[in-house]
Every structure is written in structure tokens, then in C-alpha cells.
Give the backbone structure.
Amino acid sequence: MYKYLKDIALLLLLPGLVALGYALYNGPASWAVDGNTFWGTPISLFVFWIGLAHAGTLLSAIFLVLDIKLDKRTAMLAELSTLCSLAVAVVFPLMHLGVLERFYMVLPLADARMNIANIRSPLVWDFCCIVIYGVLSLLFFGTHLAAGRFPGLSKIRKPLGWLLFPLVLWVHTVVSLDFAATFVPEWRGAFFPVYFIVGAIYSGLALVGCILWFEGYRMRLLEQLVKIGSWLLCAIWLWNFMVSGNFCTSAFIFAGLLPQLLLVSAIKNSRVGRLLIYVSILFGLLLERLFLVSPGLGDSVPFGLVDLGLLAFGMSVFILGFCGIRWYLGTAIEGESTFFGEVDDSDMVQVSERMPGEANAAAADDPEYVEPWRSYETRTLRFPMFVGVSLTVLFCIWCSAQLAYDNVELSLVQMAPILYPMSALIAALIVVGKAFHSEVVPELGSFSKKTRVIWSAVIIAACIVLAGLLGAFFGGGSSKANDARVHSAPAEQISNPRLIWNSRCSSCHGVDGKFNEKFVREYYPVPQKLDSARLDSIGVDSLVQVILNGRTNMNAYEGRLSKAEARGLVHYMQKLAGEAK
Amino acid sequence: MDRRDFIKSCSLVMVAGLLFGCRKTVLDGLGAGEGNLRGPSLKAFEEEVRLAMSQARGRLDLVRVNAPGKMKSAGLLEGSNCNNRFGMAIDLDACDGCGKCILACNMENNVPLVNEDEAARGRFMHWIEMRGGVPFMCAHCGDAPCEKVCPTGAANHTPDGISAMMYKRCTGTRFCGANCPAKARKFNFLDAQKLGLARKFNKDVPLREKGVMEKCSLCLHRLQNDRLRFKTESLGEWRGRGVKTACSEGCPKNAIVFGNWLDSESPLVKATSGRQLYAPRELAELDPSVVFIMGKR
């Protein structure tokens, strides 16, 4: 079955790449943009794919922490679908940017002029949360995969599941707040987080259903969950219609009404019927996202070829990535256990493997009294979480003392979106790090001490290098704090070259002439550094001419500075150059 | 064909291709660099303004507002006592909707033309547009929603009450455009410089690149030049007296009054005293600095 799917994906990839390339070259004008919201197809597709990305892990993590038995194959497929759709989802907000190469400015890192991302904006935290979600999903999937070789690793799956479960809800809430926090009337509403989460889980269940269909088996529980999802979403849609009058009929038909056919056992038990229903749900939810992101689009601007191409791009990349990894991992994903679900068209009873989590639960039920702080749960989850939360709180307090945040009303409320994801990230790293302790996972612990030391040293060194690179990249370095501003100048000193330098020149050249690198490096050619030999070789008169008439990126100051003042400035520059030596 | 001929013809084709790539194109000639005054003729700009006015849709639903005072967020702005808050008042009794302010603004701020495709969609770059026969531009809200959602901080507030744009920091997420209730922001969908649609009328204002947002800046460069003059000549506290925006200068009826809301000597305060102020309904709660005046006392 996967073979045909791959062929279709390859067929879609070419138009998809063409559309993506054209959209990147031509900018946001190339797809249908609603005049009211300035967004359009990429953001709809982002919401669609990030929704799909949430359900897989959620299904796997939630079932794990709630002790619902799920066989390894289903769980791993769901987790893999999460990773693949996350990778697809990340492409769309990036390509949607007007100036792609400046995407890093969304990161909350200050540059040398203390320009910082606006932490009041939901987008900043959206970006951070999604990155953290991607890392944790990868850890979760990797642990599950590695548990095939090191069975002890499955012990840390449950703590990771507990960390991931709220994170999924958290991240999708932040994504929904991108919309709900705005003034666009169709998007305003406190119900948005719930709405987005329900929509995401529902679409993800349909995707997992599709994948299981291609694997050749079914899960009755999933079908029931899909039904429940459709009812929940229908309820929200109808409520929204009654409150605000917004309604997407096509989405309601495809994702609301058609799935009810699952109630008909003839359709539910037919292979084709199930696939059609899952596809119809995905299609309906896609339409719904398009409608949601650009409410007024349908009437004014037609859905163009580029939009269809982007749609094809997402689908083909997902299918190729998923099938590729599935094929590469092969039996490692499948595991030996029987299916939780049943093989198609047979009424096999559900059988289960004994979950490793169960063994832990049994251990915890031991009647022997253990102090709470020594219990198994404390060691595996509560302690890492405690460390994560405390570090995050310390980080927030540190942030509030930073100069960069002086201009925003910084409070815990503004940092709130990052609180949980950051704690979860730290906790997850601790959980995984602890796995290397021999007591937790004996197989990993059995590596020789030397190997472990070397690996930790390599990882720590890599972190330091990464931090150093980030620092070098964003550090830039303003030459001096600009306290000596001209507004404190007494009236008689107007011709003082130092004051003119500080008021007119220092914004680029720096108070001490070593120019403001972070700002100036946006120009090409970069201005010369002050250097006595060079200044002398150019000569005073030419420098005066440069100041008055300007040169490449230097502004002309004629009319704003007199010739005598310019001459004074040149002498001041010579003095600065001398001092610099 | 033997091997030698084959290689020879291949390299000839390659050289020809390279030379073709190096030819001087029409686009090169139009590329408007710093100080390039070439570009579309003035007539093209005038025609586009006429076209935009004929296509103008939308109405302003005006409600009464109070006179803008000190900004609420003033204390947060770095090192400033915020003695100034610039704004405008548009006298709807005097305005006859001639659209001269639009052209004046376009020439002052180097607002580029758009191509036919964009014009057909009604996406002009004009910072001022006609809404129901009334010139409408960014209101420089004291509590501006666009600035709150800008992820990079490119949309920000100056201590003088101007909602400003840092073009070099704009990544073009267009979140601000989505969040402006009045849709006063314009997005550079086209590379106007490359397409030869931009013309640098005024060297004080940079040409904007493709992919960044822009909007009315209250002629920030004029204010800055005046402030610098005050600084260099040490003329005392700067209140921006005597500065006018391009639109208010270009208005034949003097219907647009620019000034400082916090300066009792400002023409703005004098023109609005004793008159009822109005603002579009969707902006009324956001403390706008640009308001409309209608009816005598």
C-alpha cells in the first residue's frame, strides 16, 4: 500500500517544490492573501499541520500515562507522524515571512543595541514553545525506539509522557492565542484554546487512523474517539455560529456530518468506508483552517495555483518523510507484540503485551511504606520537575532585571507562556540524563565509566561552543555606554566637537570611534575604523568633504553642520584615533 | 562531430549563456539606489492617487472621543519625560476630499507605486487613503494593538507618542497588520525598487524593501531634523513647534492640523479647543492621536 502512496507523493512533490520556490521568490503576493488579515494559505497550513503534529504524541503519551494499553507499533507510528508533521508545519510560518533571512529576530535574544524581540507578542512564545515541543517529541520517540535495544529505557517513557501530556495542550493553546489575542472580530474569543485543541486532536486521530489503515489494521477505540471528536467539534461550531454567525458549511459537512457514518456498521466495517471517512475529516478540517485564517477570502480572492502547490508540498513531504523513516526503521517499529487493535476484517480479540509501566505501578503499590521524597515517582518525575520549575522561575527573575526588558511591562504574566515548556524541557533533559545512571537503565549504565565521561564531556563542550557561537552572533558589541549625550550640554558649548560627535556621529561610529558594530554591520561596505595613519593619508580637507557631502552609507551633513564644525570634528577624530592607540 | 568540435561548441554555448546573463538589463537602469532620482514620472503618481480615490471603499464610523493626553505607557519609555505627544486633527468641515494630501504624503515619504495586479486588488501603498470621502491614516494610538503583537519589536512607540516602524528589524510576519482594527498598515508585497515603481523624491526618507510593513510616520524625519537643530543650537526644550507634516502642508483648505497635544501653544491644541473630537469607532478605545473635528462648539 505504501508503494502507491509514495508514487503519489513523488508526483505531488514537483508541483509542490515549484510552488514553494515561486512563493519564496515572489513573496507573500503569490498566494491568496485576505486584505483584512494579511495572512493566508501558509498560516492555514501551519495550523493544520501543527494540529496533526499534536495528536500523535498526545495519543501515545496520554494512553501511556493513563495506563491504557497500546501496542508498540501503533504508539510509534503515532509518534512518528507527530515528528513528520511538525517538520512540515515549521516550513510554513517561515516561508510566510516577508523577509525570510531575518527570522531569527523573533527569538527573544537581545542584540547590542538592546533591541529585543517583543515579549508581549504571542508569536515569540509560539516559536519557543514549538521548538521545545519538537525537542521533547523527538526525545519521546527516540526513547521508545531505543527501548527496543535497551529495554530498561521504557521506564523513563512514563515520566516523559507525563511531561509531554500538558505540553501538547499548552503549545496548542499558545498557537490559538496568536489568533485569539488579536482584534480580528472572527478570531476573538476565550473558547479558542479549547477549540484548537479539540480540532487538533480530532484531525490527528483521523491521520493516525489513515496510517493504521495503510498498515493494514484498525483500532476500534480510535474510531470511537473520532466519533467523540466530531461531536465535540460540531458542538463548538454550532455554538460559535449562534454567538457570532461564523460558519463554514463545507467543513461541517466533511468533518462534522460525514464522520457520523461511522455509526453505520456496514460502513464502519468496510475498509474503503473507513479510509474515506478519515480522508473526509482531514479534508474538512483543512477547509475549516482556511476559512478560519482568512475569513473573508472566499469572496474576494480566488484560491490560486500557488496555494494548491503549497498544499501539495505539505502532503508530499509528509508522506515521503513518514514512509521513508517507516521503511528505514522497518521492524524496529513493529515490535513482537500483537496488535492492540485487530487485523482488518477479522474479529480477533484484543490482546496486550505487559507494559513496562505496569511493572512500575506494581512496584509502587508495594505495601511497604516509603517516605514520599524517596518514592519512585519523586525520583523519576517530581525531582526533575522541581528542578525545572525552580530554574525557570530563576530565569524569569533574572530576565526581569535585564536592561533589555526595561521598555516592556515585564511581569510573570508575560513570561507565562514559556513557564511550563521551559520547565518541561529541563525536566525531560534530567530524566533522560538520569537514564544513563546504571541504577535506572542497567544496559546503559553498563557502559564503561570512561565512555560515559567522554560522552558527557563531548556534550558539555558542544553546549559551550553553541552558546559561544550564539553569543558571538548576537553580542556584536556597542563600543561604550552612551551616557555622554548632548542634551546635558551647556548652551555655550555648541561648537564643541565632542558634543557634535556624540550627538551626530556616535549612533554609528560609536562614542569612542570604534563604531557600533551590531548596527553598522547591516551596511556594506563597513565604515573604516579610526586609525591615525589612515586619517593622515586622507587629509583634513577630504574628510571635511566627506562629512559635508556624504559617501556610500555616510549621510551628508551639509546645511546641518558648518564647515568649521566639520573641521573641528576631523580634529576630534584624530584625537580619538590617537587615544585609541 | 568529433570530440574537439563537441567540446568547442559546448563551451561556446556556455560562454554565450554567461554573456547573456551579464547583459545590461532594463531593470538595472531602473534600480533606484541611494540618491537615484530616476523612477516613474510624477504623472504616474498623480494617476495612481486618482485611481485609488475612485476605487476607495469603506466608511468611517465616527464616535466622540476626548482630547489625547499624556500616554498611559509613557513611564515605560526609556529616559523620557514624555512632554510631547504629536498628533493631528482633520477638520471635516473644511475638508472637501480633494486627495491632495495623499499625493503630498506619497512624495514626502517616497511611497512607491503598485503594479496593475495589486491595483486591481485595491492594495495601494498610500499611507493616506480615502474612507467615505475622508482622508484616513494611522491614528498613532497611545495603546497601539499593532505594537503589542509585533514579535521583533519593529513596531514601537517613540517617547513623542509616534507609533514608529524600524524597517531594518521588520521580518514581515504581518501580525501587526492583522491586529490593526482600522487596517491602516501597508505591506510591501512588491520589490518596488527592482520593478522601477519607487522614486526617491525625498532623500530624508529611506526606500522600503520588499516584505516589510509601513504606514504613516507623522513625518518623523521632519520632527527629527527639527529636534537635531534644537540640540545642535541648544535652543532649550524642544516641543516641535513650527513643524508641519507633508499632508497638512499640502492641504489647500488647511483642514489637517499637526501639532503637539501636550503643548498649549501648539496650533493643534488651538484648533481643537472648544470643538468636538471624533475618531473611528474601532479606534476610539485605543487612545488615538490623530482625530477628526466636526461642527462648531
Notes: The longest strand of chain B covers residues 86-91.
